[in-house]
């Protein structure tokens, strides 16, 4: 009898534990897709990675929390769609290389002008594409690219570009430039441009607008270039396999359908429509 009683108590205890665990799992499942989603980096908060510092027109005044700029404006619209109050959005600074590297991420997703590519998708997970920027040639007046009308003429220039970017891929794969000077960051590229060490660089149109207005006001956008078909556009970046992607994508679709992205592009990212376009 004693043995049987112990066995019965053990079975009862196991059943009770299973019921409690099952109830806990049910609560966690019920909270998914809410601000208390246990899959969030910090439940109750939307934690977002971005550059440090940040630059216009992507974010103004080096202040992601201001909501002024294309990227932070999009994040706050997305956060509201997901149910988060503005004060519940937490920003985490990082370098671009840290964003695209494999491994754990200290945030739910990152927004940092990150282009979706097949190679990056092998080590991180992306949302749907929300913006596809054209490329721009940036140079100083009198540069050899100033009056260029073809890719062949552009290849005669000395180019500089930031390492690890789709700008470098563009030079190598689209313009067929294989001897570009490579720098650790955009600041190094623009310093080289001002020092006459390079003739030109290629960047996204929004970046070019900021460079020529603020960073290097003597510089100019010499021409616009067609998009790279291998660069699918900008997406939100998640740790590989992050289960939040589906929820965020649903909210992002709703934001896009409401015209929020179009409005932000019109406010922050429009280039001069009279700029020359070089296509081949």
Automatic annotation (TrEMBL):
- What SMART domains does UniProt report for this protein, alphabetically? PBPb (SM00062)
Q: List, for all copies, the residue spans of the domain called Solute-binding protein family 3/N-terminal.
A: 45-272
Q: Which UniProt keywords apply?
A: Signal
- Residues spanning the signal sequence: 1-30
UniProt xrefs under PANTHER family: AMINO-ACID-BINDING PROTEIN YXEM-RELATED, MEMBRANE-BOUND LYTIC MUREIN TRANSGLYCOSYLASE F
- Protein's name in the database: Amino acid ABC transporter substrate-binding protein
């Amino acid at each position: 009898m004693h043995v049987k009683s112990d066995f019965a108590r053990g079975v009862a205890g196991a059943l009770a534990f299973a019921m409690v665990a099952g109830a806990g799992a049910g609560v966690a499942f019920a909270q998914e897709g809410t601000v208390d989603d246990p899959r969030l980096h910090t439940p109750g908060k939307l934690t977002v990675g971005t550059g440090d510092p940040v630059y216009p027109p992507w974010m103004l005044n080096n202040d992601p929390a201001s909501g002024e700029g294309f990227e932070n404006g999009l994040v706050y619209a997305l956060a509201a769609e997901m149910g988060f109050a503005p004060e519940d959005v937490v920003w985490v600074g990082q370098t671009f290389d840290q964003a695209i590297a494999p491994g754990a991420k200290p945030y739910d997703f990152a927004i940092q002008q990150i282009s979706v590519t097949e190679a990056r998708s092998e080590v991180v997970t992306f949302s749907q594409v929300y913006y596809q920027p054209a490329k721009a040639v940036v140079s100083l007046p009198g540069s050899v690219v100033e009056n260029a009308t073809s890719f062949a003429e552009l290849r005669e220039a000395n180019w500089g570009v930031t390492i690890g970017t789709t700008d470098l891929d563009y030079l190598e794969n689209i313009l067929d430039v294989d001897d570009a000077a490579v720098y650790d960051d955009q600041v190094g590229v623009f310093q080289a441009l001002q020092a006459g060490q390079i003739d030109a660089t290629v960047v996204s149109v929004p970046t070019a607008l900021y460079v020529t207005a603020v960073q290097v006001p003597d510089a100019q956008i010499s021409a616009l270039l067609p998009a790279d078909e291998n660069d699918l556009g900008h997406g939100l970046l998640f740790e590989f396999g992050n289960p939040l992607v589906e929820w965020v994508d649903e909210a992002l679709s709703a934001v896009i359908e409401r015209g929020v992205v179009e409005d932000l592009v019109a406010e922050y990212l429009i280039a001069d429509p009279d700029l020359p376009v070089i296509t081949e």
